[in-house]
Amino acid sequence: MAEEFQNRRGNIPAGLPSFVGRTGELQEIADRIRDERLVTLTGVGGVGKTRTALMVAEQVADRFPDGVWVVRLGLLRDGALLPHFICRETRLRDQTTRPMIEVLTEHLADSECLLVLDGCEHLLESCALLITVLLAVAPGVRIVATSRQPLNLRNEARYPLEPLPVRDEATALFAERALRVAPDFELTEFTGPAVERVCTRLEGIPLAVELAAALLGDMSLDELVARVEDRFQLPARGSTALSAHHLTLGTAIGWSHELCSPAERLLWARLSVFAGGFTMQTAQEVCAGGPLSAQDIPPTIAGLVDKSLVTVRDGRYSMLDTISEFGVSWLRELGEERQCRLRHRDHYLAEARRAFDRWFSNEQADWAERFTWNYADLRVALETCFSEPGSTAVELLGALWFFWYCCGHQREGRHYFERALTLDSTPGYLRMRAAWSYGLIVLAQGDVEATDKAIEMCLAAAPEADRAPGGVARRAAAYLKGTSCSIRGEADRAMELVESYDTPLDVTGMMEATSLMIQACVSYVHIVRGDLEAALKLAGWIRGEGARRGEYKYRSWGEYIWALAELGLGNAASAVEHAYQALEANRRLGDYWGMALVLDVLANGLASLGLGEEAAKALGSGERMWQATFGRSQLGSPELAAARKACEQRIRRLIGDSLYEQAFKDGLETSMVQARIDP
Fold first, then answer.
1. In the β-sheet with 68-72, what is the strand arrangement from edge to edge?
2. Which residues pair with 159 in a beta bridge?
3. Quick one: the chain helix, strand, coil %, rounded to 5?
4. Rounded to an integer, what distance in angstroms lies between the CA atom of residue 446 and that of residue 431?
5. Of 314, 369, 643, 661, whose CB count within 10 A is highest?
6. Is residue 604 within 8 Å of 643, Cβ to Cβ?
7. CB neighbourhood size of 524 (10 A)
8. All domains of the chain in start order, with CATH
9. Residue 131 in contact with residue 153, Cβ under 8 Å?
10. How far, rounded to the nearest angstrom, does the alpha carbon of residue 641 sit from its chain's CA centroid?
11. Could you read off the pLDDT of 144-197 as tens digits, one per residue?
12. Torsion over CA: 486, 490, 492, 497 (sign)
């Protein structure tokens, strides 16, 4: 997952869908982007705003040294998280406690990039406010927004996107899409007039044209013409173009809906609960029920794909926003919306429960990747939790402690934890676990006061047995407090807190996690106290335990501590080898905090081997990750900061200031996450 650090030039999707027409409009929009800082593409749903914006972005990408960044706002429901969402899409991983809008504006202040904010109508006020701030503080940033209505901002350059001209572009689009379901179809002097009649009735609206073309798999062109002319009437006099287009598109989607089988209509409605993509298995688990069995789902989805209502790519399915919105309205008509949203929530809750018990296993990387892919739907599931009585929000958040803590989502995780813990104060295991998980996040952010508060909540909520000596609540509190002390340089106090706890075998869940993490804390305290042989011994156990389980996180910590100990013992080559092993394990999880820690050790090892330029580059790459995640280097730890400063001084003596500065800059601008230098 850390491959995203390899490309700082943006996130335009590879392999954009085929695009027909709009040559002149693409050039006009590109010219507007050159002359204006905010260009808003407006138009009816289905007119092609997203595809047009992506095509233009691809054409003008070379103008922007810091990349083109596409932000799909249809995946977001909570306007308060808009800055977090943009930071995530632009690969800014700041996890500090600073306001996210401050982090974002600081990051973009000197940037020359293009932001494509797609689907602003979902969060119109939040988008307008944020865009105003960004344009004020980041002079090198330009923005292309797509929206069904203008943002109504000063200096907004509006570009109304019209339907395609019928005679050339709409008919060409029809022919291109028809070939997918009718391979023998040709646009000839005989078929051309009929296609033109269809496209005229559909007013050249691209999505309506595509939906109609998809029907050629089930009927002849003559039948299609007859049905279109029977169903679609020309706009009434006095109606505005926009209202007419809305009516035509709505009619086209409604007509496609009528031509679906009952099973396809029902599945279309139920699939609308998904915010992002979904797999076939997920669709079966969430959408089956009543007249639609799990076995019915695959052929029914195939029918929706054939009708261009569902798209599929690399085994993941999705629907356009306009199609999904129709499905939501139909779901409400059926009276199934709440039931379906609860099934959606329960699916991700069940996934989280399974992942919680299997995190320290050979499934670890798969779970991290799975929830990263499904992040948009995880947000929707959380919103469903918040809207319903009970403790499901606290349960879902706590079960996914690893996702927030280990996979780079501390900022957003903190937002959700504070919301859930405030709304639901029910004591017991779930609140205890959630408070501990919240403590991990704020500990990583260096928020001592919030960490102490989390410890208090954890102990107060815990059942009596868990508060007893050796109980899981006591272990959780000891880890949080001990790690906090070790980071601040209070090694003796940290050891007092954690050294008495054993590591019981054959335990799972929170007892397993806290017990293993306490040993990780002890190993670091050994390093801080200079007890390197003890650190080396415990690092070997930690690495072996991680390898036995087939996981990455615990093993990477063992490799990291081993590298630190070897450095202290003067074994630089061994330290570099273990640092590379730790780096690779952290890369598999997308753990930027872990990678930042390891890159500092790697730099020290390379410098000890006389590889000054490579060491400076590693130091620069590590600094980039520190600043991109926590906004400060070495977590504020005096020992880590001192080691980093000593490393820099050694490298400067080794290769000189000028060469150091250049290599460090190279590290800031590139990545050593996948590179390897054999000593």
1. 68-72, 114-118, 142-147, 38-42, 157-160
2. 41
3. 70, 5, 25
4. 22
5. 643
6. yes
7. 25
8. 2-160 (3.40.50.300), 166-258 (1.10.8), 260-335 (1.10.10.10), 343-462 (1.25.40), 530-669 (1.25.40.10)
9. yes
10. 30
11. 999 988 998 988 999 998 888 888 888 999 988 888 888 888 888 888 888 888
12. negative
What's the confidence (pLDDT) of residue 94? 62
- Hey, what are 448's tokens? 């001592």
Q: What percent of the chain has pLDDT over 90?
A: 48
DSSP state of 6: G
SS (H, E, C) 364-414: HHHHHHHHHHCHHHHHHHHHHHHHCCCCHHHHHHHHCHHHHHHCCCHHHHH
Letter for the amino acid at 295? Q
pLDDT digits (tens, 9 = 90+) for 637-660: 666 778 888 888 889 998 998 998
Please, what is the average pLDDT of the chain?
86
Written as six digits, the tokens of 641 are: 């900061």
Angle at 401 between CA 278 and CA 502, to 5 degrees: 140
Stretch (H or E) spanning 142: strand 142-147
How far apart, in whole angstroms, are the C-alpha atoms of residue 327 and residue 270? Answer: 7
Structure tokens at 309: 């209502």
Q: Is the distance from CB of 200 to CB of 169 less than 8 angstroms?
A: no
Count of Cβ atoms closer than 10 Å to residue 623 Cβ: 21
pLDDT digits (tens, 9 = 90+) for 58-78: 889 999 998 899 998 887 878
Q: What is the pLDDT of residue 563?
A: 95
Residue 382 CB-half CA count within 13 A: 25
* pLDDT at residue 320, as a whole number: 81
pLDDT tens digits for range 204-250? 888 888 888 888 877 888 888 887 776 555 444 444 444 445 556 66
Going through 92-232 in order, the beta strands assigned E by DSSP cover 114-118, 142-147, 157-160
Indicate if the pLDDT at residue 501 is higher than 90.
Answer: no
pLDDT over 70 (residue 631): no
How far is the C-alpha of 142 from the C-alpha of 36, rounded, in Å? 8
Q: Do residues 242 and 205 make contact, with C-beta atoms less than 8 angstroms apart?
A: no
Terminal-to-terminal C-alpha distance of the chain: 27
The residue type at 606: L
Cα–Cα dist 246/320, whole Å: 16
Secondary structure element (H or E) that encloses residue 41, with its range: strand 38-42
Partnered with residue 316 across adjacent β-strands are 313
Up-side HSE of residue 194: CA atoms within 13 Å toward CB? 19
What is d(CA 197, CA 315) in angstroms, rounded to the nearest whole number?
A: 36
3-state helix/strand/coil string of 530-553: CCHHHHHHHHHHHHHHHHHHCCCH
* CA 345/CA 349 separation, integer angstroms: 6
CA angle 394–400–406, rounded 5-degree value: 135
Q: Determine contact, residues 208/46, Cβ cutoff 8 Å.
A: yes
**Dist CA 263 CA 554 (whole Å):** 47
pLDDT in tens, 106-120: 888 888 999 999 989
Give dist(CA 576, CA 179) in Å, integer.
56
* Tokens encoding 163: 């339907």
Which DSSP symbol is given to 12? P
d(CA 536, CA 275): 47
Distances (CA, A) of 182 to 96, 175, 178, 216, 425: 55, 10, 6, 6, 59
Rounded-to-integer distance, Cα 521 and Cα 112, Å: 42
Task: Read off the pTM.
Answer: 0.81
- Per-residue pLDDT, 630: 53
Radius of gyration of the chain (CA): 28
